[in-house]
């Protein structure tokens, strides 16, 4: 067995940047419709903002650890941050090229023009002046002196304009109120030409009015990202949700992690701004004239041209659930699988709605990681309470960026009489589970739902996830024990079928991989196929290396980052990894073990990451129904054959697309899965 220091691993934060590069590749792909290219640029930008707020912030915190301890733990945060900034700078330059040299010309060919301040004609100047006076109350200019100690606070990820003055020891700061006014302003169209401008340019045009006592020298856009961590005491008892709620302001006021600024800003002004904000040189990131490209999610399409967007894929109607008014009856007959976003999330909502009014339903229990605001799920739970059902909701109070909404909903449920349990101080609940207890005759029957995605109708339209409705007694009884753990009634849930983190998942996966190793050594059929978001756990990676050395063929689909180095002779030559980035976000987790021809397949909420195995409550379930097992396997195999949107994850991190062989059919897996499910449910 490899010693810890001999295990070859990629750095997760550096490899994550390879994932974001794949997102950028989608914006460059000629086959991607124009407005979808803009969305991929928006996703790239949004991803990077969160990356700096979370991952780079954590690296900065590591720098506070004593040097001797950092050396012992082999931590090199400063070196890693330096490498990150070099890669990000290259990606930002590529981003700018794609935007300026590809997207803008394509927009203009379609009659859509982004007009900048310097190009306003007389009518546009007049329009801009009138529009500015409508929004003037939202614009808050301030003059900031250079002196040491001068207070200047920039809110996280909001846009500001830095205004420099001639021969003065101060400068101006102006907010760009996108949240109040929107980012894009539509000028009146002129025939087939549609003119749009940035709110930033509307404000820039009126800068002299905001600083009448100063001579304007330059105007430059800036944006500051802040640390997103909530530094709370993990040992608090019973009041974690309140502590988190109180700590949310920390996120707004958190330590700066990156200042994005217009690269045209003179170096002298950069230095003044950096010192005023108390930043280091490493915190400064040059960019283009405009920032916050995540706003391009809402870029208007005045042409209503369907060719500029992905062709709609109408949700597939499930052949059983679509035709029944009684979900309990159908689920009791046979397990039922659903796949999002290929199928509507309505099926989960309808199941809950039926349970909320069914006279025989006694109790509803569910875990919620990210709550959609005012959804049919929350309405169904409130309806169940009104109808006298016992409702227990476990709410994860530490779901990053959803803390406030989750806690607010928890309070609403409590007010209506639900039992609401918030997360434990040192562990997150990431499982996607629902259990409904129903009285049938003299017995109580459990109906379960286990999924890979959140109970969120919005994300279910863009995240590829899988779920199963079941009454399988051994599965539902073990799931009931998971809820008993959440409610504090059990310390350890006994389970022979479910894999439950942090109790048994690591051990079972270890045993399953070791079994494949043993089978390979005995000349039996062996193999591991797995799909997940991220692969990071050192012990699992070591086992996969060991399996590869034993001759086990390992085929992985990893959407995000992977710390495993594939294809290295005498270490991982039997491991092949691809990643798929397409119109939907791959989010499902499926694990298939050959087991000498007697295949076992599992699915659930956990990746092969240390946090999923040891620090979160996760549920991974075996697929017991043979038809559904085949369906999951078929979907997995389609994705393994993707030769349109799959990238090879090699040791060089090349992100090269899978090469199609001569005469080979083009397989774009998300579309192939859609067609597969459509045909399967057309009976």
Quick recap of the structure?
The protein is α/β, with parallel strands linked by helices and 683 residues long. 37% of the residues lie in helices and 21% in strands. Strands 14, 18, 19, 20, 21, 23, 24, 25 and 26 form a nine-stranded mixed β-sheet that branches.
Task: Give an overview in words.
Residues 425-459 form the PLD phosphodiesterase domain. It catalyses: [phosphate](n) + ATP = [phosphate](n+1) + ADP. Pfam families: PP_kinase, PP_kinase_C, PP_kinase_C_1, PP_kinase_N. With 683 residues, the protein is of the alpha/beta class. The chain has 4 domains: 1-105, Up-down Bundle (Methane Monooxygenase Hydroxylase, Chain G, domain 1); 111-228 and 258-303, 2-Layer Sandwich (polyphosphate kinase like); 321-495, Endonuclease, Chain A (2-Layer Sandwich), CATH 3.30.870; 501-680, Endonuclease Chain A (Endonuclease, Chain A), CATH 3.30.870.10. Helix content is 37%, strand content 21%. The protein has 20 helices and 26 strands. Helix 1 packs parallel to helix 4 (77-109) and helix 12 packs parallel to helix 13. The chain is globular. 42% of the residues are buried.
